Amino acid sequence: MKSKLVSDAPSAQVHVVVLDSGEEAFGALTKFANDAKVTAASLTAIGAFERATVGWFDFASKSYRKIEIDEQCEVLCAIGDIATGDDGKASLHVHIVLGLSDGSTRGGHLLAGIVRPTLEVVVTEAPARLRRRKRPELGLALIDPAATA
């Protein structure tokens, strides 16, 4: 296990980001993180989508299997982090649980979601830099606590 203390003070900035109907959530949050120059943060969200795509990571193929949700769904829980990717831009990693009209759920990595009517996101920015590096042997980009952004 690797770890890095990113803040031992109460000086983290907290952003509230509210998305409107029709916005694509993953793209909008990535744009926010880049515009705000976020380099290390956690995020949580609640709200709803008119449709969404989540992914399940398949280690054998080193790719995400897409799970399409083509109906109105509630964002019951979304948690994730933001770090700087290999390209120097914000890299989001968000897991999500979506509630369907019959009470069942779908979940996975958030790949896309069209907001309806809103998505309320809390981004807690740490006064640090985290770096997400591509791990070719896994097919994933993971946070490397030893790396500098």
TrEMBL record:
It comes from Bradyrhizobium elkanii. GO terms for molecular function: DNA binding. Residues 9-146 form the PPC domain. The keyword DNA-binding applies. The lineage of its organism: Bacteria, Pseudomonadati, Pseudomonadota, Alphaproteobacteria, Hyphomicrobiales. InterPro entries: DNA_bp_PD1, PPC_dom. Gene3D superfamilies: Hypothetical protein, similar to alpha- acetolactate decarboxylase, domain 2 (3.30.1330.80). This is DNA-binding protein with PD1-like motif. Keywords: DNA-binding.
